[in-house]
Amino acid sequence: MSELPHAQERRTLNIDFEPTDNPKTRRPWTDIEDQTLRHLVSQFGSARGRQGRWTDIARELPDRTAKECRKRWFHSLDPSVRKGPWTQQEDRILLEGFARLGPAWSDICLLIPGRKDDQCSKRYNDILAPAAKDRLRGWSEEEDQVLRDSVQSLGHRWSAISALFLDGLR
Description:
Radius of gyration: 21 Å
Oligomer: single chain
Distance between the termini: 52 Å
CATH class of the largest domain: Mainly Alpha
Helix content: 40-55%
Number of strands: 0
């Protein structure tokens, strides 16, 4: 990998653009890309904001943007990220933080060592928020059967399967 000097890029916004028929699709990260990203972060650092060198890092990873590299590092590869089940204490801190600060996830995550803002947001909105409580109820026999049949016919196309439930079964 080449050593690239840090330089500020000047970007302009082209307002007269043609939409493409080919929107960028999400592409999973490979093991080689993850190894390369780890190496580049050790070389350039993982600072946020203006001190960050994410553009330099992205230049070394074909077809990856600075934003993709930064998100992959901070949400998946950073060794300080705590993964796995949430503890009751973490849930309590998250609920208290939300009650005090509202959805200020970047501030709330500072109260829970090892958890990132995205993790806190998802945990609250998907599990702890009052609106999510009914989502965790048990499944009926009919719903179980629809799920089995859908996986049989659609495979693991979860968006298509979930649409069946949003269209009236639940």
